[in-house]
Protein 1
Amino acid sequence: MRERQHLWMPNAQIQYALDWTQQLPPPAQARIADGMRAADENADDRWRHIFDGCVLAAARKRAEVTSDDVLEEIEALPHPPETHNLAAIGPAMVRAATMGILSRTDRVVRSKRPEKHGNRQNIWISRYHSTKP
């Protein structure tokens, strides 16, 4: 029987390189679009309407906006609405971009919210940012 040999490198660092520059294949893009559409369609109507307003409120206050910023806006309301699945946030941000409130960037940041477990979120440019109070 042959003995296994193990290579042990206690001080070596391993660096993985991931290429995020390429688009997903069309079938994967279609599945993502279907999931976003389903999440948006199944979101609570009141939540969706008020969340859209909170996107605009965050965009007026900040030059760059993330979904965490919009959640802060909605949570600051006296009786914030809820929806059963926060996956509806993505479609709301895309809707805001379609309406000209936000512009896409290629930048991302990890969520600071404990319940989102460091999920990646897009950084959006506000097209409504104002330095006036």
Protein 2
Amino acid sequence: MDNFREWLSDNLRYFLLGFAILAVVIIAAIGIRIYQRVAGSAQKPTDNVRVESETSLAAGETAKGTEKTSETEKQSETKASEKATEAETRASEARETESVTESGTKAAETEKETTASETQAAETAASETAATEAAKDPEYLKVTTTLNLRTEPNGTVINSYAAGRIVKFLGKEGNWYKVRVGGREGYMSRDYLEEVPYEAGMENEVETEPQTEAPTPIYKTLKGACYLRAETSKESQILGTYMAGTTVQFLEDVGGWYKVSVDGMTGYMGAKFF
């Protein structure tokens, strides 16, 4: 539309010049005819009337042509203005759409950054918590009473260690510590271990198993009559009957039953009878 307006503006003077020349020619022709009619008006009085009528008609036609040209120009300018307004409206809508899209994109990016920051903060807090918990764990422990080293919590006894023996802490599982002592790894009840500060030579002590070290016998005395059974069950075979005051050698605690040795026999007695 802008190109059309520019073309119309450039060529308008040529249209007007053409119309002016045409009007001059028409007027000249009319003048000649009027002159001819005036010259012969003595013989033909009606010719003057015709000449005047034709002159009026020609002038009217010229005025109508000029008026039509003006109306055409106005219509062209109006259409050009409407198209320019429509183009501006579309451009404005496009800018608004682009602004909304950009705002949405920025909001999404901000939300992602916030989520990433929260995730990083949570990971940092978890790392700090783990580090704090790890810092609380002891490095070396000391046995406070004769204590068994087991394959797993409440598992098979590997060996027994006297009070004062140093063990190295490896981990924990419930009420049990995983430790290393005598070059072996196993589990000991945490209730009979206490933390001790590091001293030179501890790392060597936990790797050695002195030949002189042997389990110290533990003896318990019955406080009531009790059967010695072959298994940890009331339906198992009875190996013997023992009265209150009998002393037996304690070997192991097996969930409510004591594994004991008495009179050369090994069996089980209810822990409640001691």
Protein 3
Amino acid sequence: MTKPVNPAKTTTPQTNAVAVAETALGKPQSSPSAGNGGVETGTAETCPANVRSQAIKTTALKTQAMPTEQSQTSPTEASPSSRSLQRKEEILQALAAMLEQSPGQRITTAALAQKVGVSEPALYRHFPSKARMFEGLIEFIETTLLGKIDSIIQQHKSAETRLKLIVQLVLGFAERNPGMCRILTGDALHGEQERLRERVQQLLDKLEQQLRWCLRERKLREGKGVSDEAALANALLAYCEGKIQQFVRSGFTLHPTDHMDAQWQLMRLAFH
């Protein structure tokens, strides 16, 4: 097993792209702790090194083609690179909005160009393919969730509190970003490149690994364990995926956080 590293040393990129993305797409908020865990502070805990090394490599809503020098641009200047970055953000925000407003429908580049107010060839000047646009949204989801999970791990010592807050985080993010739920469930990826589904699966695997690590760390820190940490972590992720799938299938009327507190009381029995 890869040696854990301290998550306190892992920082989530914070750039103008993050601010714009969270304003337009909904910034996840940490839910208040519940149960017997409470809000705790203390020394940051370790988390899986292979998750940390793969996560948060890019800023939110930032693809590999996005410039990294935008912070050096003078506020009074509108350099070509900053204009390009702004346009990319607008394209991704429009794509997320269309996914929400057109449930069950496939998004075409022609419709997306019309939504943004540019020509279709102009889209491809910023993204080489529609797949890269979807990848930009997937990167935003990953960066946001894993960054918030880092904060939860740093602020709370109780494993049960951590697990509940992580589940609340995932469901709350989904509820505030309906269009992105269609990506997480694969609903928006029909007819798209297979690598997009693989990319989503990689993200879900990282979330499950975080849940599994919290359970294993609980055994070391608190002397409490379950018979099968992997099975319980998978069950918690399956719960999140099921609630998100229900949200999409209902046309975004059945909210992921509905009945969460009552359902958690049933799930927490597995911890004891």
